[in-house]
Description:
β7 (141-149) and β8 (154-164) form a beta hairpin. The protein is elongated, with a radius of gyration of 22 Å. 15% of the residues are buried. It is α+β, with helices and mostly antiparallel strands. It contains six helices and eight strands, in the order ααβββββααβββαα. A seven-stranded mixed barrel has the order 1-3-4-5-8-7-6. α5 (167-202) packs across α6. The longest helix is centred in the last third of the chain and has 36 residues, at 167-202.
Amino acid sequence: IMQEDSVLNSFDFSAIEEMDPSLAEGHHVIYEREVPFELRIQDSTRGPQEVGTLESIKVKILILGEDTNPQHIKVELTGETDLFFAYVHSKDETGFRNLQESQRLMVEFSELPSILVRMLNSCIKEPHTFLAVLIMHRDGRARLDFIQNIEFKFIELLSLDFMASTEDMVRQQITFRYNAIKSKLAIMQARLQDISAVVKVKNPSLLLQIQKGSKKSIQK
């Protein structure tokens, strides 16, 4: 996996990423990783499921303004198994004041992005100690709870309210993700052709060995 990431990082996909509809209002991405989430469905009569399903959810944190002095923060949740799974949390400093008071938070609005990054990374590195639980309502509302397991007790660290993305935004995101994958594949294939052309001139026998090895891998 690390080798695959290093190969992908060697390509410049910045022009493609700039087409992301999430950036339309001037935000920029400060965090984008897949994080293990426990998904629970809230039933109006019976309450949330006691045990949900564990899934890998892509979390994207976006900031409008400077990293140290944000004007607005967005947190987007999307899923790979369900392309229509999309939730967004939106917060400015005024909205944060209400959150700060209701949950007795001892941090400022400017510190919220770094706090979220630390919590999400903890859920990745220590999944048995730090949990991210998303409780989804039938009407599109959802609540993300960050919970710490201290052996004899679960402590709720922070809760964020989410809303399901609109159908138009979901459609835009699916179109962007499809076109981005298609464009990245075209760039990688073009680079591979360039490398093959150089190897063909410098070392034709090596190119034959690579092609034979590729055919064997496909047959397997």
